Amino acid sequence: MASPSPLFLILCFTYLSVSFSQTLFLPLTHSLSQTQFNTTHHLLKATATRSATRFHRHRHRKTTQQVSLPLSPGSDYTLSFTLGSSPPQSISLYMDTGSDLVWFPCSPFECILCEGKPNSTFPPPKIPQNAAVSCDSHSCSAAHSALSSRSLCAIANCPLDSIELSECSSFKCPPFYYAYGDGSLISKLFRYSLSIPMSTPSLLLPNFTFGCSHSALGEPIGVAGFGRGLLSLPAQLARSSPHLGNQFSYCLVSHSFDQERVGRPSPLILGRYDQNSAHGADEYTYTSMLYNPKHPYFYCVGLAGISIGKRVVPAPEFLKRVDEKGNGGVVVDSGTTFTMLPQRFYNSLVAEFDRRVGRVHKRATQVEDGTGLGPCYYYDGVMEVPAVTLHFVGEKSSVVLPRKNYFYEFTDGGDGTGKKRKVGCWMLMNGGDEKESGGGPGAIFGNYQQQGFEVVYDLEKHRVGFAKRQCSLLWDNLNQR
To answer: Which residues, 6 or more positions from 260, have their beta carbon under 8 angstroms from its beta carbon?
Structure first.
């Protein structure tokens, strides 16, 4: 899930007049709030901790019309919707490919242990009780991990004769529990009109199913799940508009936690489009989606290895595939900031990186302790670092990371002398010992390492693609069309 991040994004919509034959866009403005994180160390430490927590939670739980939406750059990415009530009620949600449910706070709403976390700019909406989903609905079964409608009706205290006659429509779907990286919630399912606000035409989903939460732990903002479940936004969109729900992509504008570099929107594109008319003819690097029987909503792919410079460090076998118990593979996740790798593989990569960089530059151990990242190095002038390439499973499936996606450079308070010094840190993280993890996904490919790429999820051909882009220019080109 995309739990609230240290970087909160404020949305502001501008409306465009368009037709159904054109690409539909929602441009927004945004800003980063660092009021709770007045030092780079604190900001990086909080983000690194959240990435690790979310990864460990993942391991233990279960030519057509297109719509283009904007995402806001930061540790998490948000978009907005409108509930079709009178008057309309706006909601702001995190976009999350690592979960399969759309949910948001509803009035009255209590958030436990949410002090210091960003809150939505919109008040929690009120949902009419007659919009509640019944316990014999397939949506209710999906929210309760595919329990049978009979079991759900029993949970909802439906009388035995009604259960036997399958007459449970008057009984409401019982509450369900949902957990994310560092928070959780209790929610009920509702079915109501939802729209993506634009002037002409309006994208309206008249019977959209979502979770409505009156109580949450550490989760003050809702989530738009883009995973592979029946209740995810793409799945529900595909039922009414298959051409919009069978593929989506996004392009995350690079920011490097820099307040001055987040002024441009990141496009989220629903549906297929002619890439050549929006940018150059750069080809995608594709790798196949792997089915995960334990976590079917994940977008899992196989990783064959990672190159440091010209040396390929082979990935362990369990990162190349997912077994019958749902263990292994790599989750492509927009809701986790940093890429998380299993400990032995991570240590091999760090050893090779340090062999090349550490012989020239001094380790910044105090920075490593303060940020949770490493290895970090002090340097003067320009630091030379080796290239990093991800080799996904499949022919011609290698992705070369931009330097800023794996090596973060900033000015530190010094190495104990009080003198400010330049420091650079390796930005991939240690996910821990896989033997002690309890199984589940072997690694996560986080959104920080996805910056500067258009990442496409092709749900018809069951593949994930990557193409190097200037995402701000992509937004401009799409908007001009």
So the answer is: none
